[in-house]
Write a structure and sequence with these properties.
Length: 616
């Protein structure tokens, strides 16, 4: 008697993690819907299509309602479960939310079309996933508990197996091994999957990024060790910091004991579609499209490296990338070895950048670092450096309770706060996740004029009106930067707002869009006079020239201002907050005195050389 074959199940990642990893999450709904009928006919176990960074990107860049996207995909994929990635008590934002917000978010996600919820906590503190798991089950949906895989002196096989047992006891339907940085090796995979299969009875699901070039071998070993479901991405959205290609893995297991049963030719038709779609997003292409085995040493996910590079480039400090990469493991050790996944990857990464750029470790400490060291994200598995904790918290003691137990119910307060700008419960939840971005989205929706980030310059850019009359300034010239010469031709301009305009220029015959902010703004001071300081280059704000000027330690966006002109402040008092790398960084008054002038508004983008406020 022969042993019956075990069908291997596949989750397709093209509509979420595939383009999140390679195209900065920029794929639009209009490019998803035309292929959904073919995706729906394949027979996938699930299609991951929501959660992760998609929610933020829909609101911030694409000007698509994330809830609308979910409903439209559900209609277009009636036969295939839609899967989302949920960060436990963080949901899709970067802080912990009260239980009532978590419960309502799960309710609405389920009602709008999510069938499978993959739920994880960045620190593997399962106190932070229990509320969302329970609510998924209350909605009759599939709860998948995800173990964040990482490597450190404290992350042992026994620890991961214990997490699996806890997820099963919690009522999860499946367990995912979430290898977000691509750290698993074939041998480690065989050992981990085998141990989990002996310890739990529910199916195992593997998610491993292809960054280091071994993900296909990792999946092969996992399946032969008993893994039931693997994550893949259709080939045009596979490889690099994405995942193994769907067609390749289907072909690899075809005809054997773990044949997926999926139609390879049908998958190739889908691949042909996405091959063309990817070309539209060329400007968002990741630099990390090949194999990078450095991840085995620095353990930094590809997306995190991209964020670090952007931050350093904005500061003109890209040459310090190696120093930052060296600093990250030291910060991670100081923090008790958290896995590097959102939001802990941003917390660790941002702090490492600040340590390097400030020239002194922990001279500048973000709000998120303080919250982390206070225990407001959960319990680290390793020991925290107490000297660092004291620098951040002073004599304040950290907490060891479940972070959400410190939060009062907040859904009603959020509903009152947003008022009639919210047209639905979903809007209130969007506002809870990303207040500033959601408000901007609601305003554009109300005006009937969404302004999504362009994929490329408009087709008629060359026919657009010239930026300046030829008699006033040249429109074609050469520039030399650091000894490199570039040919520049200005093709045209558009309109975004009174302060910001897109300009279309060819750089060495490659058409680019640049956003230019005007340099003129009247700023009243406390005595009613007009500020006449010279504007900082590239900004309408004055350049910081005095030790009493308030400046930001890194580029970012103003999310809150806590003082007004005429207010008295103490040295070290928080006067505003800047969001950078998705983390909120408090900006303090450098001296005691009176606020003489404020040169920023909430929502403004700011740079380190600018004077944001003046203090007398």
């Amino acid at each position: 008697m022969t042993t019956p074959k075990k069908k291997l199940a596949i989750t397709e990642l093209a509509l979420r993690d595939g383009h999140q990893s390679l195209l900065a999450t920029r794929m639009r709904l209009d490019d998803m819907l035309p292929i959904c009928d073919k995706l729906d006919a394949i027979g996938y176990w699930s299609i991951e299509a929501w959660g992760g960074a998609t929610f933020d990107t829909c609101l911030r860049y694409l000007k698509e309602g994330p809830w609308v996207r979910l409903r439209e995909l559900k209609k277009a994929l009636p036969n295939t479960p839609i899967q989302m990635l949920l960060r436990g008590q963080n949901l899709l934002g970067y802080r912990h939310y009260a239980d009532d917000v978590v419960q309502k978010f799960v309710d609405m996600a389920a009602a709008n079309g999510v069938d499978v919820f993959r739920i994880f906590d960045a620190m593997n503190d399962l106190r932070n996933v229990r509320t969302s798991v329970n609510q998924v089950k209350a909605n009759g949906k599939h709860a998948e508990g995800a173990i964040c895989y990482t490597v450190s002196p404290v992350h042992t096989l026994e620890h991961f197996v214990d997490l699996g047992k806890q997820f099963e006891d919690m009522g999860c339907d499946t367990i995912a091994i979430k290898d977000m940085a691509g750290l698993l090796t074939p041998a480690a995979t065989r050992e981990l999957v085998s141990a989990l299969k002996q310890a739990v009875s529910i199916p195992l699901h593997l998610h491993s990024h292809a960054t280091a070039g071994v993900a296909e071998m990792v999946q092969w070993e996992a399946v032969h060790a008993g893994c039931d479901i693997i994550d893949t991405a259709i080939s045009p959205l596979a490889g690099g910091t994405s995942h193994p290609p769907t067609e390749a893995m289907v072909a690899a297991f075809a005809g054997g004991d773990y044949d997926t049963g999926l139609d390879l030719e049908a998958l190739q038709e889908i691949a042909a579609y996405f091959r063309e779609v990817r070309k539209k997003y060329a400007r968002f292409e990741s630099d990390a499209t090949g194999v990078d085995t450095r991840v085995f040493v620095n353990q930094i996910p590809g997306g995190m490296i991209s964020n670090l590079a952007n931050q350093l480039r904005d500061q003109g400090a890209l040459d310090k990338m190696d120093e930052v990469l060296d600093e990250i493991p030291r910060v991670r050790k100081d923090f008790g070895y958290p896995p590097l996944v959102t939001p802990t990857s941003q917390i660790v990464g941002t702090q490492a950048v600040l340590n390097v750029l400030s020239g002194k470790k922990y001279k500048v400490i973000t709000n998120e670092t303080k919250a982390y060291l206070k225990g407001l994200y959960g319990r680290p598995l390793g020991e925290v450096n107490e000297e660092v904790r004291k620098l951040a918290l002073g004599d304040e003691e950290p907490t060891d309770v479940r972070p959400a137990d410190l939060l009062e119910p907040e859904l009603d307060a959020l509903t009152r706060e947003i008022g009639d700008k919210a047209k639905s419960v979903e809007d209130v939840l969007s506002y809870a996740m990303f207040p500033t971005v959601a408000l901007e989205f609601f305003e554009e929706r109300e005006s009937g004029e969404f302004r999504p980030e362009p994929l490329e310059a408009p087709a008629d850019a060359e026919a657009a009106a010239p930026v300046v009359a030829p008699s006033l300034a040249p429109t074609e010239f050469n520039i030399t930067i650091h000894g490199e010469e570039y040919h520049i031709k200005i093709e045209g301009s558009g309109h975004k707002s009174d302060d910001v305009r897109p300009f279309y220029v060819k750089v060495d015959n490659v058409l680019e869009e640049v956003m230019v902010e005007t340099l003129t703004e009247v700023v009243p001071t406390a005595d009613g006079s007009i500020d006449a300081k010279k504007a900082s280059k590239g900004s309408r704000r004055p350049k910081a020239t005095s030790d009493s000027d308030v400046t930001t330690p890194m580029p970012g966006r103003i999310v809150s201002i806590t003082v007004a002109v005429g207010d008295s402040v103490e040295a070290g008092q928080t006067v505003l907050t800047v969001e950078a790398m998705k983390m909120e960084n408090p900006v303090h008054a450098p001296v005691a005195g009176t606020i003489r002038a404020i040169h920023v508004r909430e929502g403004d983008n700011v740079n380190p050389d600018e004077c944001l406020m003046e203090i007398d």
